[in-house]
Amino acid sequence: MIFAAYPQVISSFKKSLFFLVLLQSMVFPRLAFADTGPKPGMEFEFKQGFAGEPVTIRSGILCECQQSDCSDAAPLQKVGPQGFYCQENSCSATAYGFSPYHRIEIEFSDEKTRPSNVFETAGFNSNYIVTVRSEDLQVDAKPSLGVFPPIMNLLLLCACFLCGGILLILLVVFLIRSSSRK
Length: 182
Hints:
Elements: H1 7-27, E1 41-48, E2 57-65, E3 74-75, E4 83-86, E5 90-94, E6 101-108, E7 113-115, E8 119-120, E9 125-132, E10 137-141, H2 150-180
Parallel strand pairs: 1-9
Antiparallel strand pairs: 1-5, 2-3, 2-6, 4-5, 6-7, 6-8, 9-10
């Protein structure tokens, strides 16, 4: 009822709001996926830590554990995008959610299957360096600064300031118009 005396201001505000929504939909297009949302991930970079012929990866298993000693280890199941995948010199995992503790077992080209130490999830997108030793694997977390690369953080910050600035300008214009009509 308070805005009933200002139909022109309301109409102008609606048009500005419509323009802002239209602008946002053109500047930030979104794709539609059936299974939306980011999934936690792990990247494993392998380096050889023993003398001898370089070995390559044949296959691997990521075991998920709730207990810190991994006494309740169970392999990560392949369900949809979730799974553990290996190439010749690296492995990666994607999951709907990881357990707090993990262990990997990798079969190499020298026909040895090497188990790793128990390691913890290092973040939403975890990066690890795996040192291949003669009888086992040593998994160490790589330091990480966050989910997004630094340039993406900067772009997101700029987008927030831009949207906030536009809203602030619209509010000031609305208040000036409403006070000048009195």
